[in-house]
C-alpha cells in the first residue's frame, strides 16, 4: 500500500514510475484469495476505517462499493454471558445502558463520553503526537474499571492492535478511538485486495511489474534477482520492516537497522453448509470473546456484511486468534471448533474448514516512546516508507508513501 500510494502521487505529479513487486499480485499484507467454490478470503481479518485521512485522499470509495460493519459488537463476557453493544463509541450512554448491560459502571459510561469529547477537539495528527504510555496504563489512569477494560477495551482494541495485553502506545489508541467515533469500519464488496487493485489500475500500463524481486540496491542502481539492473533518479524501499537492511548491504540505517518486532495473528475460515443460516443472525455485528484462555478471539460472519464473499446459499465465518498459540493448524482448528460449539451451538459441527492463514508479520509493534515517524529520506536519491516506519495502520502506509513522493518531487524539481 505504501509503494502504491507513493507511485500514485508521483504519477499524479507527472513523474514516470516503475513499481517492482516480488509477489504475484499487488497488496502486500492486503490480499484476498478466491477459492474454487467462490469464497473470497482476505488474508487475515482486516477493515478499512473510512475516516482515515489518507484513505479519503487517495481512494474512490464509490467504486470500491464499501460494505460497512454495523457499529458495535456482541460480546461474550468473561463469565460466558453475552451482551450486545450498538454504537458503543457514538452513543455510549444508550449502548452500555441497553437492557441493563452488564458491562461497565455509570462512571465508565461517562468516561467514554469524556474521551469522545476529548478526541473530537484534536486532529488525527495531534492525537498521534500526544505523549504516550501503554494503552492499559492509559485506560487505568483514565479511571475505567477492570471489568470495563476486560470486557470491552481488551477484546475490542486488543483485536485492532493484535495485542490483548494492550501494551500498544496510547497515542495510537487515541487516534484509533477517534477514527471509530468519526467513521465506519468497512470492507470493499469483493474483499480487501480491491484497495490496492484500485490504486494499481489507475497507474499507466507497465508501471507495476509483478513477480519481480529486488536483490539489493546500490545508490541509484536496483539489482533484481533475475540479474537485471535498473537505474532511476530516485529509489524508494516500500518493503516490510525487516527488508531494508538486507536490501542495502553495508549501509548504516538511521536507527542502526533496529526494527520493531511484529505482532502475529491467525485467521481460520469456516463455511456453513448450503442452505444453513448463519448462527444468531444479528446484522453483521462483530463477535468478541472476552473469556480468558480462549483461542477464538473474534468471530465475523463476513458474508452477512459483504455477501459476495460467499457463494449464494452459504456463509463465510472468519475466526481470529491473536498472538502465538503454538499449535498446528489442525490442532488449532479442532480446538476452535470445540470453543465455537460451546459458543454457537451444534450447527458448528457442520461447518467446513476452508483455510488457515498464519500471519507472523501482521503488524509492527508500536510501543510508547517510539517515534511517530522514522526519517524517510536516507540520501538524496534513496527513500523508504511503510507502516513500520510510522505506526501500525493502513493510514501510516498510505501517508508515508505520499510523504516520500512529495519529498522526491521537491528534490527533482530543484535539480530540474
Ligand atoms: C491480518 C491483518 C489485519 C490488519 N488489520 C488492519 C486494520 O484493520 N486496519 C488497518 O489500518 N491496518 C490493518 N492491518 C495493517 C495493514 O494491512 C498494513 O499496515 C499495511 O498493509 C502495510 O502496508 P505496507 O505497504 O507498509 O507494507 P506491506 O503490505 O508489507 O508491503 C510490502 C511489499 O513489499 C514487497 N516486497 C518485499 N520485499 C521485496 C523485494 N525484495 N522485492 C520486491 N518487493 C518486495 C512485498 O511483497 C509487499 O508487497 C492489518 C494487517 C494484517 C496482516
Keywords:
416 residues, alpha+beta, FAD/NAD(P)-binding domain, 7-stranded mixed β-sheet, 3-stranded antiparallel β-sheet, 33% helix, 20% strand, globular, binds flavin-adenine dinucleotide
What does this structure look like?
- The protein has 416 residues and is of the alpha+beta class.
- 33% of the residues lie in helices and 20% in strands.
- The chain has helices at 2-12, 53-58, 61-64, 92-97, 106-120, 124-128, 135-142, 146-161, 170-182, 194-201, 243-247, 302-305, 329-344, 394-415, and strands at 19-20, 32-34, 40-42, 48-49, 66-68, 72-76, 82-86, 185-188, 208-209, 214-218, 221-224, 229-231, 235-237, 262-271, 286-289, 298-301, 316-322, 352-364, 382-384.
- A hairpin with a 4-residue loop joins strand 11 (221-224) and strand 12 (229-231).
- Helix 1 (2-12) packs parallel to helix 14 (394-415).
- The longest helix has 22 residues, at 394-415.
- The chain is globular and about 65 Å long.
- The relative contact order is 0.19.
- Bound molecules: flavin-adenine dinucleotide.
- Flavin-adenine dinucleotide is lined by residues 1-3, 20-23, 28-30, 44, 46-47, 213-214, 238-240, 243, 247, 265, 359, 362-363, 386-387, 392-395, 397.
